[in-house]
Amino acid sequence: MAHAANFPAADFPLANAQAGGTAPPAPQRATSRVGAAPSNAPPASRGDAKSLEPNTTITGGYKLIRLVGRGNFAKVWEATDARGERVAVKILHSSHPQANKRFLREIKVVRSLPANEHVVQYVDHGVLPDGSPFLVLEFVVGFTLGQLLSTGRRFSEQAACSLMLQLCRSFAGLHALGVTHGDIKPNNIMLAKSASAPSLPAPNKAGKEVIHLAQVERSSLRIKLLDFGLVRDAQGLLKLLEQHEMLPGKDFAEELDVGMLAGTPEYIAPEQLIDARREEHEPALTDTPSDVFGLGVVFYQLITGVVPWPFEPDSRDPEAYRHSIKEYLGRRASGERPECPPGTSQALWSIIARSLDPDPKKRQGDALALFRDIERFVEYGVGVPANLDTEETVLAYFDAASADVDKESAPVTAMKQLPAAPVVPESLAVSTRRDPSDLIPAAAPPGSRTMMMFIIVAACIALGVAVAFLF
Ligand SMILES: Nc1ncnc2c1ncn2[C@@H]1O[C@H](COP(=O)(O)OP(=O)(O)OP(=O)(O)O)[C@@H](O)[C@H]1O
Ligand SMILES: [Mg+2]
Known about the structure:
Strand content: 5-15%
Mean pLDDT: 79
Number of domains: 2
CATH architecture of the largest domain: Orthogonal Bundle
Bound molecules: adenosine-5'-triphosphate, magnesium ion
Strand order of the largest sheet: 1-2-3-4-6-5
Shape: globular
Helix content: 25-40%
Structural class: alpha+beta
Low-confidence stretches: 1-32, 35-46, 405-449
């Protein structure tokens, strides 16, 4: 099986989406991303993307107020628009063409997604005089999940489930389009808070406080998913829409991911490591179940406060860092399974363990499937049977189990407590995994355009249904 492959650590082609292929710097723990590269460039002149200061008014009339986030490729500012409304402005500061292409993809995806209360909303985009693109977003008042977890706090099972249900909802539009986020981690998940709601209690001295559902609800914390910088058109739909001029531009025309590993080490699924070594002609394994893996890592972290496979980089120098990351990724590629954390209920663990299965076919096929597993746990206290395939729905499993029970007049099992299966459109009940070659004919025969239009319209309807279903 693919996940059992154990590559020599030195074989990993580490992604390097920045200029020069130079070694990564000693990373900051919270933001270490595979492929991060040092900024060796000389200081930029005043007024360009690298040297912006508070109170600068940029193209579009956005006045920068304060820096609120700094990634490897972009900086995020709190700003006001021409009417004085608060917005966030994310400005690319890397001049590498790969980073630029990824930023344009981010803009396109954030713009194209249907409105979703759990995804940061697009406002505008533009280009600075020096050519640096920027993206304007709603400003989220609150804090990142990373900031909260760094205080040592964690969540009760019910509180973690409530946040995970919101987080899964944030993927409704993305996964229905067969697009992966590719960088799920607490620093890319914000917890928005209204000014009038009470704050979470401050961490106690030991910093080991468990946050309960009532506190999450009292503080009305709302998940907002951020950072679409590593989105991947895993099932080829966006490329298809671009080819047929139903989506402007050619941002997804080019394969950016061959021979690259992009993401944050602790959250990367084993198949992403395998894909990093594939040749262009080989099909990629990374798909919506790879995001489910990242969601599983976050789920584990919510209830334990730690990630299942901690990465402690050796940051003494770039060479030591490179060595430690290769060694770590080599271990991860062998497909280790985490143990059930002490004190976690078996039913909940069966759901988290399913999302962290090294084999993507054994995971929930997408965020919607994970949503359903969590919802069933919250409402009925049941988990999932081991070794379900992505293509096999839990509901189908439960239906079959109930039918057998009826036939044999055996005692009613916990599974029988489930309500009648809700009507789930077939396209949503199973993985949204599609083979792009099914959608894109090698040579379009005459008349195929009508069929193509049909497929595209069907995909758009599926997307609409997915969104309507979740909200
Ligand atoms: N809309 C927003 N409102 C408020 N804060 C934001 C917003 N968007 C981003 N931030 C802050 O900026 C930080 C960086 O944002 P983002 O993850 O989008 O940038 P990035 O350059 O892609 O980061 P990285 O490379 O580290 O993943 C976030 O962790 C968050 O603290
Ligand atoms: Mg980020």
